[in-house]
User: Fold these one by one.
Assistant:
Number 1:
Amino acid sequence: MRDFTYLRATDADAAAEALGPEASIIAGGTNLLDLMKLQIMTPERLVDITRIDGLSTIEEDGDGLRIGALVSNAALAADSRIRAGYPVLSRAILAGASGQIRNKATTGGNLLQRTRCPYFYDTAMACNKRAPGTGCAAQEGAGRMLAVFGTSEHCLAAHPSDMAVGLRVLGATVEVRAADGALRTLALDEFYTLPGDRPDIETTLAPDEIITAVVLPAPRAGSVQAYRKVRDRASYAFALVSVAAVVEMDGDRIGKVDLAFGGVGPRPWAGDDVAAALAGETPDEALFRRAAGALEPDRAPHPDAAFKLPLLRRTLVAVLREATGLAEASPGTDHAKDAA
Amino acid sequence: MTRTFRMDEAQPRLLDDTAQGVIGTPMDRPEGPLKVTGKAAYAADNLPEGLAHGALVRATITRGRIAGIDEDSIADLPGVIAVIRDDRFVRNPAQGMADEAPVQPGDRIDYHGQPIALVVGESYEAARDGALRLKVRYDEDAGAEVDPATASETEDGDPTESGDWDKAVAGATVSVDVTYTTPAQVSAAMEPHAAVAEWKADRLVLRGSQQMLRFNRNEIADSLGIDPEDVQILSPYIGGGFGSKLGIGSEAVSAAIAARELGRPVRVVMTRQTVFDAVLRRTETEQRVRFAADGEGRLLAIGHDDRISNLRDEEFAEPVSSASQFLYGADALLFRQTVARVHRTPAGSVRAPGEAVGMIAFESAMDELAEALEMCPVQLRLKNIPEKHPVTGQDFSARALAECLKTGADRFGWPGRTVPGSRREGDWMIGLGVASAARPNMLVKAAARVRLSAEGAVVETDMTDIGTGTYAIFAQIAAEMLGLPTGKVSVRLGDTDLPGASGSGGSFGASSSGSAVFLAARKIRETLAGKLGCSPEDLTLRDGIARGANHEAALSDLLDGELVEEAEIEEGKTAESHFSSGFGAHFAEVAVNAWTGEVRVRRMLGVFGIGRVLNEKTARSQAVGGMVWGVGSALHEDLVHDPRTGHVVTRDLANYHVAAHADIPADMQVEFLEERDDQANPMQSKGVGELGISGSGAAILNAIHNACGVRIRDLPATPDKLVAALEAATE
């Protein structure tokens, strides 16, 4: 770890003022400290935002909820309003990391965690995300955990978050605050950028902006919500693929459906087209297989990661079977209630 | 020095007659409270006055030479003291029991990740920063071969063969010819490799994390070019080894050189990434297993060929077909090995070298044969247990294989096993699997000293406790032999100034070094018998009281000062006349998800015959630990090398998956059969540390097949492989 200066911000203005290209925000530090020890990130200044008031609560916001950026992953997953109205978010959070990490990790920090691509993690390897312009050693390397959607010739890295997949399927927005106090609200697809030719840029956050909150829309009472994560071991591993689903039934037919996928893209990957193909249909395994079969990437995946497509399709079918009542629900599939 | 006892004939079962009643009991580790309260000082916990910190620098090319190290590149970094680079640096750790320096390559680089220099700083952070920033110039050799499958440089071992292969195969009704591949693995001990080197005048005091001190002292002395008498190694606590700390390595050699050069103590602790990069790995394997059998399931031919890899100049070759050569008998046998020379982290001993991977393929192929014969896999195994060692013709000593299989089948509900793919609970397909377990037992030269005084007894030996329970077991042996409560025995280990023991490796530590403790105590018993006025056979010692021939006396009254005896043991004629091995049987129940290919182990049972059990608790922990690694071997562990550079890609515990708690079922049963191995050693005990991993992975793979009809022959059995097979089956 390189030497750095440390500044404890007492309010958002002070934090914004201290930010800049050489600075990093630190909150839970569960990812940043590892990256600093390995010198993958070498900020000259750390701005500690954990003492800023007002960022650590979950409050009602119209019909939805406003989650402060510093709310811990553990507290968010355990919140009774989240468990009742947004169970897919609780399930997604609890599918990730460990109890100790979830106690420290924050909502904002989770969104901003870096990829776990092993070439990003090894400073002896070329990586456009870590060192722009050096190349991508993963392209011809070992690539089992790489993304299959949204990649570019410059970067194949996957976003590792489970929580963000839960947020994406719920249509959550991110509230960010600039140094001048201006607030912006961004959908997750506006918040995250695709790698293109600048994989080092991962979000649309300006250097002086900080995440202040994540806002959830009104709960979808009566919907079936599921988070299914498939990984190489039963706990403490990143997703090979994950499927988040919010399914509403309209009598015997499928009503509104939202889908998001983890482990397969540089950001939580939306399954809007698949979802659209299901709305209004009668639940049927052949239908689910057809819909899942439409999941095709624009670029050929790294050969090591190609298995993720059939695995994702099969996992999606399994989730839809349970969510629509074709199969008995297993743990991870819940009926949402009114959040209040 | 005392005369060495040679194990030339079976010894009286003295431990069945002694009266203290502590041997075999599930005694807690006496050092346990120190460990869980952080008071046990592991190597890196020693912080002598003036300590400097070293961080190893790795090579970032695969093959070539160091053209220059630009020390100026970090000279201005605050806290950096020096860059140490020395031709005595070692390329990789010494192989187990090498007893001499490992390869010292000078400026040559043989693999990506090789430690090539040490940056020393006033703090660990400064040293590590320097190590990451140091500029090294290389002369790179193109065309370094890193893929074992295609490596052009190979060496064929001498085949082991008997009988007429072609004739045996020609007479077969059913045959199996299958190829399995297993990935490389690493030990990933919890405690990273660490050393604190300090020179006291011209004597090196090394606090290290080492498994075999008697050998390690000679290895570091040879590495440094000094007299072994000028080295003391202290290694009282070791946070796991699994083979990775058998030999002296870069952390110790570089710390010793730096401490000498700088005139102050130096500590080197490997980062987790360096442990992956530069500590001996288990080789990947490609294994071809062939069986030919008659219609009744009698084996006619057994063949097991393997292709493994290692770096040039490493003699170690994973003995993949070790257990295949004695588990079952057949008219014709053929075992062949090819070693591919590649520029990857060198390979060496990792828990149960040979059996751990060899038995996965061999015992899975046995299951394939049972399927082809439409025969119960337990019955097939029982039918083919040979009378004598099929290769050497030796008699077996105590061998519980048949009883373990039968007992296990009974306990596990084996008769309830259904045909593949027929048992389902929701989306989960359920199956049962079985495999034999075997791991040869060894007796390795070892010495120990026992002191007895009115206060109690002290055991002294340079034997180590790598988390296996040596402190507890030696206290039990001495207490049992001398008639003392275990609390009256203190055990001193891990110091090369004490009598040289076997070290911890090959599952031989407790029995070999424990036998030295036993023999030293037996001599004390003889002296006590003389003092009491009875024969040693009539002597009974219990709770500090000696009785015999109508005499009775407190030990404190018999003793005139301290009685000190030292004993040394080595293998003898029984090792020639008899083949001694631990045996067992593994049973597993798994569930396979029909959609995602995830595998969950629902319960496991291991039944073992390991001779006399010295401590039921530590033995059980060893067996369970091995079975857990069997789960990891079958389902998770995969040391991935980059196809271009050969460097380790999965170089931390986030990317290299060992089994997590959630992967291990609560229903994890171990049963030891009552057994005495008279040919093994004077205690009639055998090794247990590696038996649990030997075969357990095969039981899981066989259960996967029984669950869903899929044979996974390329390990680990991750969801992608199962999904591919399930997809193919439904198309």
Number 2:
Amino acid sequence: MLESIDLTKKYGTKTAVENVSLRLTPGHIYAMLGPNGSGKTTWMKMAAGLVKPTSGQILFDGTPVGIESRKKIAYMSTEPYFYTWMTVRDVGKYYGDFFEDYSPEQYGRLLAEMELTEDLKTSTLSSGMMAKLKIAVTLARDAHVYMLDEPFNGIDLLARDAIRGCILSRFSPDRILLLSSHLVEEMEAIADQAVFIKAGRLAETADLEDLRTREGVSMADRYRTIFGHEEATK
Amino acid sequence: MKNLLKYEFRKTLSVKLALLGLTAAAEIAFLAALFLNKENLLAISIFLLTMLALGGVMVAGLATILTLHRDMNTKQSYMLFMTPNSCYRILGAKVLENALSLLLCGGCFFALGTLDITLLFARAGSLKELWEAIGSMLRTINSELTLDVPNMLSFTIGLLASWFSAVTAACLADVISSALLNGKKGNGIIAFLIFLALSFLVSWLQQTLTSSVTSIQPRFLLQALIALVLSGGMYFATARIMETSLSV
């Protein structure tokens, strides 16, 4: 279980995340939704142990995130982060050197599915190819938690279908999948839970099946309700 | 640790290869000039080799500082900090890489220098007389100041250890800037002032604690030891700040 308790992150006078208490349990695919700058990425980075909270806690299986949790949480940042001297093969080797749950065979399969070859240099990849590489190497881990920040950014429609398939193939009842995206409709086809973050605060968590059956609304409808005014005033 | 160290060496590989290439070119020029009796080329190649020896050690240290800075302040930092390694290990690999690079670089240039001087004396006996004249001049300043291998070796060790402590001081200042002062006005200047203060402190302690030692070799070696102990302290302080406060 991945849990944040009264989690706050401030950058100087700006508050990126404010008192967010959230519990993610295995067996669910979560869609983390909110406009740009709402705090989704900062929350994920804190869960990945990359950003230190100003206050509050973030726990993985009851223990504060750190070295041990990084062995079990696979995080994919929205920005490219590979060393520029690396080839696609080097990226795989790097993950193999540091993560025990990494599978080179799985990486090879995912690369083939993403139509990437190992000899390509990361510095020459287009944004779409880079996005595919990030997904391939992250999903090549047999992790307990997958956190993918904007996995569909810069990816065309056809490739999106392939990526959706790859993401869903990693789902199992003992795993947590957390995805953030601006493409709300895209997420509706994957996720079963929604986490709405508004201006750094947790606006709502919702079971999508409940939303549909009890209230007769889709995730996109709820998104419009929560953020509609904010988006309109932008 | 082995893997971290491997990638630290890889990150500074291009700098080391460039240094190696330049040194090889200067050495070939030196040998060619020596055996073909080209005096101008000999003078230029000796100048180049001296500059490379001094600059090479400096560049190896600067490469470590720049790599650490990039690893904390660009998106590439995720590659390092999302791995299941503590900041003590991550920084440890960087410090160790730097120490090994300095040793390797210093050792190579020392060996190359000794070999080239020997060759030079063998080819041109008059230069040996000049060398001895410089040596006797130095002895008039201090009777222990001789241009022999043990003295030069202890001086080189002292110099490398002092430079190593300067690199760890720069790492500490950079981490303070990135972790504690990030986003604050004038953090670069504050970090630079911290670096100057730490360097001054190391130098002052080296001078103060060895002032009673009159022999040159023990003094150089004791100064090296002090620099290494202080580097250890700065390493722990840096890693502690990274572990508790660094957000990438």
Number 3:
Amino acid sequence: MSIFDIFNFNKQKTSANTARERLRIIVESSANDRKMPKIKELQAEIFNVIAKYYEIPQDDVNIQIDQQNGKTVLELSVNIAEDAKSASII
Amino acid sequence: MSEVIVVTSGKGGVGKTTTSAAISTGLAIRGKKTVVVDFDVGLRNLDLIMGCERRVVYDLINVINEEINLQQALIKDKQLPNLFVLPASQTRDKDALKIEGVKAVIEKLKESFDYIICDSPAGIEKGAIAAMRFADQAIVVTNPEISSVRDSDRMIGILASKSERAEEGKAPIKEHLLVTRYHPERVKTGEMLGVTDILEVLSINLLGVIPESKAVLKASNMGIPVTHNKQSDAGQAYMDAVDRLLGETIKPMRFVEAKRKGIFASIYESIAGE
């Protein structure tokens, strides 16, 4: 216990809370992968299509599944940097 | 010239992944272009320690199987522009680590990196062998605990026989010892093996001693390698180890002597470590 803990009104900031939140996201996403096993494949295929045109790193394509009001929402975000090289595929 | 360094131990839970993350971060802080590769196929954790777990789709196995090119699989560190992570696969098993494929990946990484850090899985099975196979140097991570020291001794033997360097009759792998979770006070009271005891058994070059530290758990919680925590004892000890790896020999070992603590030191420690 540190001196900060005594005066720590904002418990959200502890490192254990960060760990808890990170774990929650991982567990949720692997549960989603089990529920919808095709999502990873879909993400991979979308990435491959984009990679045909632009050389981008893998983490610039992001797919997230969220449950909102009983509906499943698929969110796709693709980040193509302005200086991304065109892929050299003939 | 690029250097391939395997972080290995034999025994699990001694701090291989923490060390891989901390050393590669330190090398990148010192301006070296560095990639850290997770060889723990099936049970990857390096991505968590490096804080990039949400960005992984492709991994080492996809690169070995040529399902994606290497450049695209590398995940760029959020803070250091010259640091990259190549994650392990979570779904495949160790049989997917084809040795020829690993060789091709390492050769390719050598073209663009100064340092290639291979985070070995525990054990002496296929994953561990693949991680050390093409190494030029090895960091053997050891806890001051009898079973860990014995496993390290076994690992040193394997490094000397199963690596490509050994099989091709080249100069052997340069081995370094890194003692982690060290508790100088307990060594002083005779409850824990000291560095000299460990060195007597293992007799390899001592790269560093990392003290037991609150900062290490905090670093894993946050996904920020402990080397970034420059106030922490563990962060400083890892940075010293990095400097020794880079050839600086003058630095004396810190954090190996039990210290007499005053009230202010205790308070400072709990703040820095929190």
